[in-house]
Amino acid sequence: MGSSGFKSHLGALMVVLNKVGMLVFWRYLIVELHGLLEVVLDTRDTTSSDSLKNRLRSRKKKQIIVDTLDLTDEVSLPVKPSPVIIDNLILSDDEMTEPGIESSDKSSTKQSYDQSEDLVNPEITIMVHWRCLEWKKFTIRKYQTITPIFQHFAKAEGVSEDRICFEWEGKYPRITDTPDSLGIEYLAMFDGGTAAPTGSNTRTASPARSKLDANTLELKVQRKGVKRPMMVRMKKTDQMIVLMVQCAEQLNLPLDKLKFSFDGEDVNKSDTPADLELEGGECVDLFVSS
């Protein structure tokens, strides 16, 4: 083969190699570009996923903060319960029934609202201007008779109690009167002196005691073994402790020595006339323990 023939074959071979090389090159380039594209896409997906995760974390964090703030705003401070007022009696928190606890005994529940003896029968101050010369101060309970005042001046003057007389706001208190029967609420000032043996202290009782108003009823209290019953007045809205205290004062006995019943049933301090269906004139039985 001559040199010209060799060169011709070599040229043809180079052409073929060039074509093959270009094909390989383009194939290699396509593969590389495809790989690079996958890397780019994976990176983008990863970035997007991370971004999404970050956004979710951020939103969740914000939601937690918002939720925390909302909970803080809605927290209410404990409120102290208002005192309960029953017939002008204010009950403290300690006297109120604890919330959430129900008693199966209705009477024991009502007992927690009993008016105390001191509130029902408070002390009243009575000032006596004796013979327009001197003032004397006396402390008498609301349902206690003013007998001690008569006794004091009778002893001081050396006369009988029926010789002692008082005047207060146009009324002439009797020895059996009480601050309640006279309508004295806190303080009263009597003018006092001695009278002739006829006994001025036996004058007619004050009008406030002689008539019953629409809100007051009168009950008989019959003591066992005693023929004459005691007559006791109380408001229709009062608790029965008011009647009990008056009986204790009239008998000069401690309240815990007295037991009351009506129609064979025990009367509780917290009962009211309405509870017992009392309308006035009924008889309540009284038993005195030794």
Automatic annotation (TrEMBL):
GO terms for biological process: positive regulation of transcription by RNA polymerase II. Keywords: Nucleus. Residues 215-290 form the Ubiquitin-like domain. Pfam families: Rad60-SLD. InterPro entries: NFATC2-Int_DNA_Repair, Rad60/SUMO-like_dom, Ubiquitin-like_dom, Ubiquitin-like_domsf. One of its GO terms (cellular component) is nucleus. It is found in: Nucleus. This is Ubiquitin-like domain-containing protein. It comes from Timema bartmani.
